[in-house]
Specification:
about 30% helix; DNA-binding; 12 strands; 2 domains; Helicase, Ruva Protein, domain 3
Length: about 260
Amino acid sequence: MPELPEVNAKKNHFDQVALHKKIEKVDLIDTSYILKNMDGPAFAEKLSGRTFTETYRRGKYFFAKMDNGHYVLLHFGMSGHFYYYEDMSGQPKHERFAFVFEEGSRMGFNCPRKLARIHYVEDLEDFIARKNLGEDALKLQEEDFMELTAGRKGTLKGFLLNQKYLAGMGNLYVDEVCWQQHIHPASVTGALTEKQRRALFRNMQDILKKAVSLDAVYADYPDEWLWNHRTKDSQCPRDGTDLQRDKVAGRSTYYCPNCQELIE
DNA sequence: TGTGATGTTGAATG
DNA sequence: GCATTCAACATCAC
């Protein structure tokens, strides 16, 4: 589930249940694939006795700051999720590790597909610079977006998905904004007019803000959006045309062949 | 049973 | 440097 609004919802959850609680230990189940820059026991040792003091989200990257000034980066991949519980009966099936708080509750990190990535980060700025991670899509300024898009070759979808330009957009929100703007996702980014690019940018932020305000609960997303119509054999909520499904920028893409213009 | 899934990365290619 | 395509990562659900 995790694109910007989903990760934001996870942050909200984490802030609510995990901040300011002393970590007694880290329960390691299987961190072999997801923990990237140290092994499980070293990670557990680093975290033991620490307290999370605040959190920071940039795009889909979630950083939990500790009382020693260091961070834990949690990237959820495709299927990562937090589960907070006090009774072991609440332990999720694919928990890879859990922060065990002194009071006895646990913040479990569940990840069936092991595509999540965890790093122990001493220097946040350095980590972001090395990742070449772009500005958060909600913090990006319109003029910077205009500069990033001007004259750019390559598909609009490929651009919006690339986290080094702006961070946070994923497959579903990209389809949504392209659809709302009547623009075919395979359009050439730099071929859009200035007016189109400005409108796209504003609409993108509006969509993200709305999704964040709804805590990424899909059932509450406006029915006028493509979102809940983005399924096999469905129709465009605007004009009833059968939606088309193609691969664009290597990702499964839904769009309306009738009302989304290919600009190139 | 085969296929695809909200993400990222690296290799190969143009 | 830029952009594209493909494969890989590991598991589950349909």
